[in-house]
Amino acid sequence: MANTSGQAFALMTASPVLGGRAPTLRTYLRRLPTGEKSPLARLGTTHFARWLVIDDLVYQGPPQVREHLKSSYLIFVSNFDGPLGSYIDAIARLMPVEADAIWGHCVGYPGAADPTAFAGFVQRNQIDTTFFVSAYPDASVAQVRESLRARERFTNFAVSVQGTDPAALRRAFTARFPVPA
User: Fold this and answer.
1) Which residues does 26 contact at the CB level (< 8 Å), separation at least 6?
2) Count of CB atoms within 10 A of residue 116's CB?
3) pLDDT tens digits for 94-146?
4) Domain covering 4-125 assigned CATH 3.30.70 in the classification
5) Could you tell me which of 26, 11, 163, 180 has the C-alpha nearest to residue 86?
6) For residue 81, which of 148, 151, 143, 12 has the smallest C-alpha distance?
């Protein structure tokens, strides 16, 4: 399936922005926190996501035909632990204020208070991903985070034991990283 890679799902939507609202939407998007403070981080399943507003198509010269958009579009792309329905539901439940503040600038947005209508809106604006590669197709966000924590613990250990003789290094290693029973 084009939108999946292992257990990961790719979502892309293109939603027409109501006339004159693109500058306000851009300002709101610029002010959103990023990283662990991002509203999408609350979902716990987002690997990567981005919103952007495009005003028109880029003309790259012949043989391309000049085309123009009739409105600005809000583009949303996200890679997350699937399935799609659960992710859309989580957006409506866990970040309704932000969802309304973002998609509320778009044509036909019903609001996050009605999860069924919200899901229909997202699916109507969805564009199938024709090529999707996930960095960790078989690892969930939780598994990736745990691996990063393990790497950090091991790196900190390696730095702390620089110059330690082999016997002491072995004792320190088995004390810090005991073998599970």
Assistant:
1) 53
2) 10
3) 999 999 999 999 999 999 999 999 999 999 999 988 776 677 777 776 677 78
4) yes
5) 11
6) 143
Provide the token pair at 170.
């072995």
At 179 the pLDDT is: 83
Overall average pLDDT of the 62-81 stretch: 94
- Tell me which DSSP letter residue 32 carries: S
For residue 1, pLDDT over 70 is answered with no
- In this prediction the pTM is 0.80
104 CB contacts (<8 Å, ≥6 apart)? 111
Residue where the block lists tokens 């990961």: 8
Cα separation of 135 and 102, whole Å? 27
Cβ count within 10 A of residue 84: 18
Cα angle at 32 between 31 and 34, to 5 degrees?
Answer: 120
Domain assignments of the chain as residue spans, ordered by start: 4-125, 141-176
Question: Tokens 């969930």 — which residue?
Answer: 140
